[in-house]
Amino acid sequence: MTSYPKTALVINCGSSSVKYAILDPKDGHTFLKGIAEALGLEDARISWKFPNGDKGEVPLGAGADHTKALEYLVKNILSKDPALLESIVACGHRIVQGGDIYSQPTLIDDEVEENIRKVIPFAPLHNPAHLQGIDAARANFPGIPHVAVFDTAFHMTMPPKAYRYAIPEEYYTDLHLRKYGAHGTSHMFLAQETAKLLGKPLEETNIITCHLGNGASVSAVKGGVCVDTSMGLTPLDGLIMGTRCGSIDASVVFFLCERLGMTPEEVKEVFNKKSGMAAVSGVSSDFRPIVAGMNEGNEHCRLALEMYAYRLAKFIASYYVPLGGDVDAIVFAGGVGENGPTTRKFVCRELRESFGIKIDNEKNYASKVCDGVDKVLISTPDSKVKVYVVATNEELVIARSAVSFVK
What is the side-by-side order of every strand in the sheet holding 386-390? Predict the structure, then answer.
């Protein structure tokens, strides 16, 4: 029988999915990884993969929910390896929105669940799904601590001048309208890993972290502490994203409602799901066909990439202010950040003249954060700021947070 170290189960629930992984919180080695998809639909299914190559996918039955998915994980997948099931000492849950209530990972109890429920208006698609996942996991793994790790927690160190909006006071005090940010778990991991690459104590570093996926955000991290970030009350604000418009004049909402008779809900749908790179390129929300389109002469694709890079470069430039004008490193991560050399080139080109940021184009295009290589320096020796590509690992952060509650 295989012997395992103490492991953590990490769960990330969407409205119709459960991503799960079991890993060693010390070194991040993954013993099992999988996803349950299309939950609540006719083709609900679950897939899994063990390191030894054992993998599979099976239907869960029409309408299967989060509870059914985790029941199958315990009774049918982990039953293949009882020792692995026994090795799980804690379960970490990724929670998108913790409001201004939580600034640290928190042991889940009924009160915590109720607080997650209170801030559903700030994450209406995510938090209800997280609660479903928590209930299902607590039912199927009753003997271990369950820990909430909030995407917003890392950003709770921002000063009021960074997170407040210039709106009437009662909207902040009564409705809690403020900047919350997102991807905090990733930004924290990136800052910690980049400090190691710099060979400096985290407390002595000034780092700009760029988490670039279909959703994207950038943060200014001073001494390991977030001092500003691009996403706001919701993940709609900030950078241009796959299908989200990012920062936009609020009057555009009024204009669309008045001139086209759109409802606020319809405008929200357009801004979140029909805008961004997909809208500008006219091709896709995926950067790969957009880059291919640009290389084939599609000017809409070129414009989309230039707009994306320009917006990101402006945020990076603005973060020299909260970092006191002294930046040690810029780090790119996420699906686009890790696998988009053209995007990285466009961004750094915008920053070259003003900030002396230079990347080695050969290294940039040759860099692959995969196959065991998860950190790459792509800046030139004479660049005034080091530029890294780092594979983010939110699951490892969540796993470590979870086991910290094991007595």
Answer: 225-229, 216-222, 206-212, 329-333, 386-390, 375-377
